[in-house]
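Dear colleagues,

I hope this message finds you well. In preparation for our joint manuscript, I am sending the DNA replication protein DnaC (Roseimaritima ulvae) sequence together with its predicted structure, so that both groups work from identical material. I would be grateful if you could confirm receipt.
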Amino acid sequence: MTHSEFLELILADESLVRNDRKVERGVRRAGFRDVRRLEDFDFSFNRSIDRAKVFDLASGHFLRQAKDVLMCGPPGTGKRHLAQAIGHAVIRSGALVFYRSVFDVVRDFLHDEAMGGEEKVLARYLKPDLLIIDDMGMKQLPKRSGEYLFEIIMRRHEVRSTIMTTNRPLADWGKLIGDVPSASAIPDRFLQAAEIMKITGRSYRLKNAEKTSKGTKAPTGSDAEKDK
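The corresponding structure tokens are as follows:
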């Protein structure tokens, strides 16, 4: 190896190390609930998921178009894993990502509003290239939730991309938010430039539970006597 080749190798290695550190910082800032990657997702379990669309989203093209994504489906079908995995993938491409459950979003605004810092928390939600709002539909939200969510969606619309996951039909959002005008305005604005992914099928978590239960056999013979 010549001196120039050795120097080139050292510089390439340093570049890789710096990029890895940058990704690690981006993942920490994103605040993911879990660190999920697409390579860890079992696409064979749920054939309803459009694999090509998922990997297209992971490429980050939708960020450059400021498009939104709505993932709909029953609990346990992979929405959260896919949303976080797409977020992780675009971080590696240099994007700034912020992940929050819908409950954390509302809690952030309620807390900062009480402290007089609502503009500061709003800026935190407007800055990222990709905002992921998870768990829409798990339970009813506190009062004024619709106002906070609509403000985020309206201000990010056609400027920055947002991914939302939900296990409830859009028609039920009014009951969850407790504000019918906001519940109508949020999906109307959000879906104007959104990719919709409908995920159906069995729960992956239940699949694992079934495997565990099948692997546990009832005690027989001397073992049964010991358990008495």
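For the figure legend, we might mention the following. Residues 147 and 156 are 14 Å apart (CA to CA). The first strand starts at residue 68 and ends at 72.

With kind regards,
E.M.
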